[in-house]
Specification:
Length: 170
């Protein structure tokens, strides 16, 4: 088990950093490197109908893209009433449906994702066990400050699947 005082809560990045990541994700050669873990996610405001785009780090869980957002941020709340989102990944833009994972489901998703991606677990201050798994207490602590979003991209071309994308990133 990781010392719970070590769970990292990254701060809100400054506007220039979001702009820099967005520029990198639109630059063909650079986006191949940065796009392995980052995407641009566009959501629609529940009240305003305005579209908001933000860079997000993602993980793969089966055929879904998983995004963590701090609970204190506001943008992800729009998904409850406006689940259609756009993800710009690896130079392509894809429309899909996002959902906010329930508590039990969020634990299961994070357990799988963080065990498969120890570098991401370490980013959040979670040290995987010797067998590669992560402690449930660490996941619970992480979920006190984060929400798990799962995005399914039904409009991907048949020859381009999430598995193809995951394989291209290895």
């Amino acid at each position: 088990m990781t010392d719970t005082t070590q769970i990292k809560m990254p701060g809100t990045p400054p506007a220039w950093m979001n702009a820099a990541v967005q520029a990198m994700l639109h630059t063909p050669l650079i986006q191949r490197l940065v796009g392995r873990t980052f995407a641009m996610m566009t959501v629609t405001g529940a009240k305003t109908g305005r579209r908001y785009t933000t860079p997000v780090q993602y993980l793969m869980h089966g055929d879904e893209f998983v995004v963590l957002s701090q609970r204190k941020r506001m943008w992800w709340r729009n998904i409850a009433s406006q689940p259609e989102v756009e993800l710009r990944i690896q130079g392509g833009s894809f429309t899909g449906l996002a959902r906010i994972a329930s508590d039990d489901e969020a634990v299961a998703i994070l357990s799988d994702c963080l065990s498969a991606e120890p570098r991401v677990a370490k980013f959040y201050g979670i040290e995987p066990r010797s067998d590669g798994t992560v402690d449930a207490v660490d996941i619970d602590r992480l979920l006190e400050g984060f929400v798990v979003l799962a995005v399914k991209l039904p409009t991907m071309e048949p020859e381009f699947t999430p598995e193809d994308l995951a394989e291209s990133m290895r």
